[in-house]
Design a protein that fits this description.
The structure is a single chain. This protein has about 80 residues and is mainly α. The chain contains four helices and no strands. Helix 2 runs antiparallel to helix 3. The longest helix is centred in the first third of the chain and has 26 residues. It is elongated, with a radius of gyration of 17 Å.
C-alpha cells in the first residue's frame, strides 16, 4: 500500500480532492457569513465550484511535488540543478 501512495499521480489526486474541499468550504463559509445561501443545488454554489477548481489545481501541483524546488529556493536552501 505504501508503494501505491508513493506514486505522484495518486498523491496529486488525493491533494486535489482535499484542495477542492477546502476551496469549496471557504467560499461557502464566506457566503454564510454574508447571509447568503451557502449551498446550492449541487452541494456548492457556482462560485464555490470555481474556487474549488482553482484550489484543486494548485493542490494537485503541490501534491506531485511541482513546487518543492521553488519552496526550497524561497527558504534559501540549496537546490540541485541538472546542467544537461
Amino acid at each position: 500500500m505504501k508503494k501505491f501512495f508513493s506514486l505522484g499521480l495518486i498523491r496529486g489526486l488525493i491533494w486535489q480532492a482535499g484542495g477542492m474541499l477546502v476551496g469549496g468550504f471557504l467560499v461557502s463559509g464566506i457566503r454564510l457569513a454574508l447571509g447568503l445561501d451557502p449551498l446550492g443545488k449541487f452541494f456548492f454554489t457556482e462560485p464555490a465550484w470555481v474556487v474549488a477548481g482553482l484550489f484543486g489545481v494548485l493542490a494537485f501541483i503541490i501534491g506531485v511535488g511541482g513546487f518543492s524546488d521553488w519552496y526550497k529556493m524561497a527558504l534559501g536552501e540549496d537546490v540541485h540543478e541538472d546542467h544537461e
